[in-house]
UniProtKB/TrEMBL annotation:
It comes from the Bacteria. This is Ribose ABC transporter permease. The keyword DNA-binding does not apply. Keywords: Cell membrane, Membrane, Transmembrane, Transmembrane helix. Coiled coil: none annotated. The chain crosses the membrane at residues 31-51, 63-82, 88-106, 113-132, 138-155, 167-195, 227-248, 260-293, 305-324. It is found in: Cell membrane. Pfam families: BPD_transp_2. It is a multi-pass membrane protein. The keyword Cell membrane applies.
Length: 328
């Protein structure tokens, strides 16, 4: 009897740590989702108007531009890089979309192609500077931040440019759903597919984990890094088009500071600034967390100044979690 009773006790001692580890692993993998649920709960308790369909659609629209920028940023951060230019590139792309119609006289639908193309070119320049010019990503993209913003001011003359109907339609609805939300969902699906289902996507994790080992394994590191920044620019161009559609005009000073929100969304979503880890769904959740916080604080009539303080604390907490996870 003693021997029989001892067996279950041993089993119990081995099962408990397994359960604890599985819970810890689940929380580590889904911490952003838990955070989003908690933030939504707090906002609902603070203001019941938060969990209404019109307001939730408004949250999605507010998150759309930052989320699309953040999806492009996800590719970069997975490779242990950074892109500080996405806000300025988004503004330049929108200005280019307006310019091809207002000045060049091209048809409105061409503007829908001009903006992403402008972003792609800007990102390609940054990628070449990082991959082949050996410039630190921080410096190369900081330079592009200034160049793109300056070009946006030069091309527009410092004045807003009205958007053609083809672009302004991006600020409307389709079958009752705001178009920015549809663009967000398509961008999320494309990002998830590239990261999870393509050789290119898997190579990004290898480069971010150990660039030298990836090179020795035969991966085209320079070409891949160039493509990563080009993708970031492309997504910035799309985000700039959506923002211009919402405003019905291209503003040369638009999207200022959005690069910080994009980086924050990626980090809050669980990506590591050290590279090698990141998920499209995590980035989406990170962007939604930022949008929910801002929307809830607006409903509570909190001033924009205090909103910046709260967002800064959230970013600091997310980076702190990333540091602790890296040490573990």
């Amino acid at each position: 009897m003693p021997a029989e009773s001892a067996t279950p006790s041993k089993g119990a001692t081995t099962v408990a740590p397994e359960g604890k580890r599985s819970i810890a692993t689940w929380l580590a993998d889904n911490g952003a989702l838990v955070g989003l649920a908690l933030v939504c709960l707090v906002m609902f308790i603070a203001t019941p108007a938060f969990l209404t369909v019109p307001n939730l659609l408004n949250v999605g629209v507010q998150a759309a531009v930052v989320a699309v920028l953040a999806f492009g940023m996800t590719f970069v951060i997975i490779t242990a890089g950074i892109d500080l230019s996405v806000g300025s590139v988004a503004a330049l792309s929108a200005i280019c979309a307006g310019w091809v119609v207002a000045t060049a006289g091209l048809p409105g639908p061409v503007a829908l192609l001009a903006a992403p193309l402008a972003g792609l070119v800007a990102g390609l320049v940054s990628g070449v500077a990082v991959a082949y010019g050996k410039l630190p990503a921080f410096i190369a993209t900081l330079a592009m931040l200034s160049i793109a913003r300056g070009l946006a001011l030069v091309v527009s003359g410092g004045r807003p440019i009205d958007m053609p109907d083809a672009v302004a339609a991006l600020g409307g609805d389709l079958f009752g759903v705001p178009v920015p939300i549809l663009v967000l969902l398509v961008a999320w699906a494309v990002t998830a597919f590239v990261l999870n289902r393509t050789v290119f996507g898997r190579s990004l994790y290898a480069i971010g984990g150990n660039e030298e080992a990836a090179r020795l394994a035969g991966l085209p590191v320079k070409r891949t890094l160039t493509a990563v920044y080009a993708l970031s620019g492309l997504f910035a161009g799309i985000a700039g088009t959506v923002l211009a559609g919402r405003l019905a005009s291209a503003q040369p000073q638009a999207a200022a500071g959005y690069e910080l929100d994009a980086i924050a969304a990626v980090v809050i979503g669980g990506a590591s600034l050290a590279g090698g880890y990141g998920k499209a769904t995590g980035t989406l959740i990170g962007a939604l967390i930022l949008a929910v916080i801002r929307n809830g604080l607006n409903l509570l009539n909190v001033t924009a100044f205090w909103q910046q303080v709260v967002i800064g604390l959230v970013i600091a907490a997310a980076v702190g979690v990333d540091v602790l996870r890296s040490r573990r």
